[in-house]
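Q: Entry one of two.
A:
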Amino acid sequence: MSSSGAARRSRHRYTYAEYLAYERDSGLKHEFDDGEIVAMAGGSRRHNALASRLSAALEAGRKSGCVAFQSDQKVRVLATGKATYPDASMVCGPIEGDPTDPTGAAITNPSLLVEVLSASTEEEDRGNKWQHYQLIPALTEYVLVSQTHPRVECFTRLSSGNWEYRDVTSGTLTLASGATLDLDALYAELPE
């Protein structure tokens, strides 16, 4: 047996209740995935500026009945148990909380999720997270924003259940939530 196989089997798997207690007691944000508690690293100045501008655009353009959230809002995928903190999110309609979270901190029905990509998160945001996010029945849009150059990718759920992909590198992108992302404004004078 390889040492990596032994380490993998001996790793402690946490329950969601243990994760909630750990996160509450630590005072820091952590994601939860398949029994693992994963600490979240802080973003770069560029990442944080983009996330702030995205949140402002979502708030400014949201339709009536929608609520925009920034990166401190936890989202739980009930179908898989995964808990994350996307860079921005929105709920249109009544907000549904996680029935297993006594604090009521996590939402389970975002209609829009936004992730600002970085070298350390892009693979996860495009892969594992995206697979989980697709299992949220209320989700209608998933937006990926490049940090390195003007580029916003948007996956929109069609009535058939399939996803339409748009890749925008200039101009504007209007989201189903009502918000418009102007790439010139989004990327203007970003810190390095």
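Q: Entry two of two.
A:
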Amino acid sequence: MDLRFPIMRYDHTMPLLEGRVDIPGWTIKPERTPAMITGDVESLRTGDFGLCDLNTGYWPQAIEEGWELIGLPLFIKRKPVYQYLFVSNAIQKPSDLEGKTIATNFYPTGITTLLQGLLTERHGVDPSKLSWLANGESKVFPRYDAPQTVTIADERKNPWDRLLDGEVDAIISDISDGDAWIALESSPDVHRLFDYMAEDRKLFEETGMYTPMHLIVMSAKLDHENPGLARSIYGAFEEAKDLAYQDILNDRSGFGVLYLRERFVEQTNDWGDPWKYGVAANRDVTETFARYNANQGLTKRHMAVEELFAKGTLDT
């Protein structure tokens, strides 16, 4: 049977797309899938899909609103969120953000949810005193009793340009633009609020969290019709990750990083495996993320881990 499968260029998922790992009884059919839910995505709402590489910012909301999808404990894209907070020079400490305007591309996303939650719980920032200016927001999922103010911009403009032009006080937004990184990191008028590498390491040491940005979600209809499939998919992703790691250790990988094998060994010694799969290994971060969703009015309540993942994977 065919399994519609997202095209993902992550090193640890490539063995699946290359045909080096099989999902027994299924043939992978790669296709482009939507990572964001800023409007109605009929295929995700009705379950007319296979697997999707989805931004975590929409995962609990979609399940709570009855969309026919369910999460798999496969956080295949993680990013250290502290690196995405740039501020004007007038802001020198987290509490200085209160009463200020933060620009972002879309609200919410995994980055806005996680970093806002971290600022609140770990740095004492009052979310009710934050004002957000977003280029767009989800038009299908409501917000409930949200403490923060979110305004949709009349004119679309990159958040980093708004900060560099002095229109806003800070940005918290994904940046996938090399020129934007150069402009922000070289500007004398803005800076990162945190030494993000040190803060990421501290977060990992104290909580075990390496912040997840995307996960694999599965059609809930497909899961109901094929009760063993979720677990088979999970096993295939684990096997693909092991193969990708072994490629690096064998010095056979083709990535443009000097001494990649040595850096990988160093990372493993320092961090273990930051890309851990499974419910048990990700229970704390999932519960934290669910709490942030409830606190920020993205869901009506703090959803349980068991509601967010396919039943066939709950023992992973």
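A: Comment on entry two: DSSP finds twelve helices and twelve strands in the chain. Residues 229-249 form the longest helix (21 residues).
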